[in-house]
Prior knowledge:
The chain is of the alpha/beta class and about 325 residues long. Helices cover about 35% and strands about 15% of the residues. It has a domain of about 220 residues: Rossmann fold (3-Layer(aba) Sandwich). The strands form 4 sheets. It has a 7-stranded parallel beta sheet with strand order 3-2-1-4-5-6-11, sandwiched between helices. Strands 7-10 form a two-stranded parallel ribbon. Helix 7 packs across helix 9. The site of one uridine-5'-diphosphate has 9 residues, from helix 3.
Amino acid sequence: xxxxxxxxxxxxxxxxxxxxxxxCERLVSQGHDVLCLDNFFTGSRRNVExxxxxxxxxxxxxxxxxxxxxxxDEIYNLACPAxxxxxxxxxxxxxxxxxxxxxxxxxxxxxxxxxxxxxxTSEVYGDPEVHPQPxxxxxxxxxxxxxxxxxxxxxxxxxxxxxxxxxxxxxxKVVRIFNTYGPRMHPNDGxxxxxxxxxxxxxxxxxxxxNGSQTRSxxxxxxxxxxxxxxxNTPDDFTGPVNIGNPGEFSMLELAEQVxxxxxxxxKLRHLPLPxxxxxxxxxDSSLAKAALGGWEPQVPLAEGLKRTIEYFDALLAREx
Length: 321
Ligand code: NAD
Ligand code: UDP
Ligand code: UDP
């Protein structure tokens, strides 16, 4: 049983989104007081409605591009649309969310001396020439393309975190998250796992962009949340950045085959043009995560994670039919 003095007041920005809702759930179950902040651009009340009755949970509508005055011990900064369709919908707002959002949350952390974790991304590596990607790789990012609002916004947020660390001695943690999937992904956000599953369950064509040989590494949400929690609780001299992802690497064709097999769908593959600047390969070098996070390794293999995600979407689509 957690003691009173171990209870922390924790702010989760973007807490009503896919990853944020799982994080809030975990922190509430650990006995912390959680303030979930979201502007509901891509997240929803529905993602956290099972937490609303808990006296430990509070939901607040707020946009991180505006200042925020609250008293907390820890901040997880997740606010930012994550799928290409959503972050390209209003690219200026995406950059503002990453940059102004980081400045405001760092300013808040500085005032209340809170520890703060940034949800960064493997997109900081861009279309990488080094494979798999270690944290020491500086990346290959187009600064003026359609993905830049997200990639460069996240890169600038990392810069701000490290400058507040050096200049103001803030306690910071930066995690670089690789493609993560699981229940509560938005069904229409265009990300590959949700797209393929929804298409397979509806018996529609599975849309492969390009020839489908591009690769990604997919981490199940529970493994990611475990690593985030462990990162926040590392000693103060550990700042990251640390890659968090599953080193299993699959082409989009292989992913489509697995989804078809697991759903028993009759969907056919349909090839569509490859989006601009789509990275050809991505796979984390996760040796730092293993060493720094107490031997952390992903526990859920792709087939098992897909099964759980398919169950979620099956129930969701059944409710909507
Ligand atoms: P998501 O879109 O489900 O969640 C983002 C949340 O942030 C949403 O609830 C959205 O409404 C909220 N939000 C957006 N702009 C905001 C603003 N200005 N003010 C307040 N709230 C705002 O996406 P997710 O997959 O849960 O991603 C969460 C975080 O993790 C993001 O920062 C994302 O960049 C990062 N990330 C995710 C992945 C992944 O594969 N899921 C990979 C790399 C990084
Ligand atoms: N800020 C905030 N909440 C706080 C403290 C600061 O939202 O509790 C915002 C504030 O609006 C400012 C930003 O964080 O724009 C950066 O704050 P900092 O103190 O680092 O810089 P300064 O206020 O000197 O610009
Ligand atoms: N993709 C695809 N079909 C889809 C959606 C995505 O082939 O219906 C591809 C996309 O081109 C990319 C990969 O799947 O190469 C992962 O895309 P996602 O948007 O999920 O993530 P990101 O590109 O940000 O890693």
